[in-house]
Amino acid sequence: DTRRVHAVRGELIHFTADPADAGDAALTHLPDGVMLIVDGLISESGPAEAMLAKLPADTRTTDYRGKLILPGFVDTHIHYAQTDIIASYGEQLLAWLEKYTFPTEARFSDPEHAGEVADFFCDELLRNGTTTALAFATVHPASVDALFEAARQRSMRMIAGKVLMDRNCPDYLADTADTGYADSKALIEKWHGCDRLLYAVTPRFAPTSTREQMALAGRLFAEHPGVYLQSHVAENRGEVAWVAELYPEARSYLDVYERYGQLGERSVYAHCIWLDETDRERMASTGSAMSFCPTSNLFLGSGLFDLDRAHALGVRVGIGTDVGGGTSFSMLQTLNEAYKVLQLNGQRLSAERAFYLATLGGARSLYLDDRIGNFASGKEADFVVIDPAATPLFARRMAATTSLSERLFVLMMLGDDRCVAATHILGECAFEAGTA
Ligand code: GUN
Ligand code: ZN
Q: 323 CA to middle of ligand 1, Å?
């Protein structure tokens, strides 16, 4: 038998449905569980006693008793090239792009720089328990190569694409409608479906593309079934007003994307704050997804996401860190800020729903829930191991909890990279605290 068999023991927590719909039945909790992994896929999980009784005595076993094991986090919106401008002071979206973002993205014309940042970025995701990301590269095709190479070396699931941007940006960062199309097509042929890598057509946002480029982005999306499309929409009020000037023919900002064939399954829009009811209905009926990016929305002063409205209309929603507009790689810190954004908006976010959104909900928003998002049999064994005693305060507050719900809430409010004891990719340890 040449199969790679691996048993992992610990407190297993995962979701099989949205707690906002299914309530407590959405969560599966095995206080002492064993997950059996064969060739990187979950074959079965169950109570430790029953599982161990039927496994051969020499089965390779990793013992994480005393720790929590959750599905790897899914970050549905992040910019790898903005790693080095995280925490840059004082601006809202459009000025922040001019002052910090464009100059730093220009450096990715150098493939060596791109490679160094891509390696750091993937390691930082793993340190934070993030195992799948939908990421922007830059306008440079080699920046996509660098990110996919780094993800492939680590066997990570990564969806990424070359930024399309042919106006309203510095000349040194602009492509053209034709080169953007040709370069994207070549990258799709090179990378889409290679190992765990998937391609996303990436028009930055409507203001930085001409109508010609918007049409060709829609064409790329239509011509390659299974590829993704990622962009930004309705993040900032100044941006919304600018789009209305640039595209007076459109009913709304979202309508610009719809006119160019950019809504549909596997399209993911970051922010989605200043949308109207029709926009949200269009996203729901086309199967498009929203990425809720709370740390970014607070940091750039953009506004408050309306999760209740999205949920009521049945729109797919995932969570995004949006680094470097966002201020943390940690999905735990991002859930903390999501809770606060919703508080300011008169809404609630239970811990169960928060962790659902960071795992299975994110996977559903990416149409990857047949592969990742929970511990169902046949799924890829990407998971994060959480140390509930990672810091003095965390251990003290955890010790005072009386329910799983409360423990999960403490984890999302106080947790960050310090709580990540290990991250596994396809069953194998890809990060272990204290060794990196
Ligand atoms: N809108 C267009 N580009 C960007 C970007 O890089 N970050 C954010 N947060 N919004 C954008
Ligand atoms: Zn963004």
A: 10
